[in-house]
Write a structure and sequence with these properties.
The protein is α/β, with parallel strands linked by helices and 329 residues long. It folds into two domains: 171 residues, Rossmann fold, CATH 3.40.50.720; 100 residues, no CATH class. Helices cover 58% and strands 12% of the residues. It has an eight-stranded mixed sheet, sandwiched between helices. Helix 9 runs parallel beside helix 10. It binds nicotinamide-adenine-dinucleotide and magnesium ion (5 copies). The site of one magnesium ion (MG) has 2 residues, from loops.
Length: 329
Amino acid sequence: MIYDKDADLEKLRGKTVAIIGYGSQGHAHALNLRDSGVDVVVGLRPESSSRAEAEREGLRVLPVADAAREGDVVMILIPDERQAEVWEREIREGIAPGNLLLFAHGFSIHYGQIEPSSDVDVGMVAPKGPGHLVRRQFQEGKGVPGLAAVHQDATGQARELVLAYAKGIGCTRAGVIETTFREETETDLFGEQAVLCGGLTELVRAGFETLVKAGYDPRLAYFECLHELKLIVDLMYEGGITGMRHSISNTAEYGDLTRGKRVIGEPSRRAMKEILAEIQSGEFAREWIAENRAGGENFQRLREEGKRHQIEQVGRELRAMMPWIANRG
Ligand code: NAD
Ligand code: MG
Ligand code: MG
Ligand code: MG
Ligand code: MG
Ligand code: MG
């Protein structure tokens, strides 16, 4: 683990950090670095709606190409599937020998979508939390843990600069784990596909559908299979699986211990291994890149299908009864 004492912000002194993109991660990195005394410039499209917001914060905003040129350190925080085209069109030329190119996720580099020349440093600082938490924790004097990696060290200074950046956004306050682009990319994709997003949404819908098909009230099915998840996840977040099991009733715990493995059994574990293999071989990346090149029609169709599921309708009605929930649907 790398902590504050292991990283030196002085390494960034005299350098300009260009933050490309001002979304979830972009705004947090730009503001935290600025508050850490680093010279920051934000690169945005001229028509970007974030421009006014960044300027209101007193940040200097330039077109992407100009920011990339000014930056000695250039952090790319636009969506992963847009990075390659923006790189070719607006960033590549501005990256001078000895500059440090940074990412918050390894996809573009690991799958060869961006191939920086060998005379620049390439690294990663990936906070393990959404941008708003990265910003809020920093303002409270704390930080979100992060991952750091060096893909290419042309100057011999890459690691120290990467760690200085991690310190500037607050990650070393909590702790930074050093990793590789390959490990970060593959575990991140696997986590979101098999567990956090793909696995979880299908688990919830399968439970909901099972109850509704058996004739139960869809509102009760929603509460039991989706709404209560938050409670359970919060307990796991704070105390792991053991902490969660300590808080639930003994009846719930016995049901958990004796039934869970029937839901996620050998077939699911086999599917997880296959999904991991597709990530490792680059098959998933090729599919996702091709989907975007083709205009993302299939992606859009799947998205719309998901929105029409009965659980979404029921959820909207129930969430309207719970004013304490920031209703985003
Ligand atoms: P986001 O979608 O919140 O923000 C993207 C930003 O890029 C916006 O400011 C948008 O206006 C801008 N943008 C989009 N297309 C552009 C273009 N063609 N040219 C210039 N700017 C453009 O993105 P995010 O979630 O902050 O993700 C950024 C990076 O951070 C990704 O690599 C992602 O994997 C990584 N990351 C995200 C999180 C997270 O929790 N959101 C966590 C860790 C790492
Ligand atoms: Mg530059
Ligand atoms: Mg992730
Ligand atoms: Mg991800
Ligand atoms: Mg219950
Ligand atoms: Mg118990």
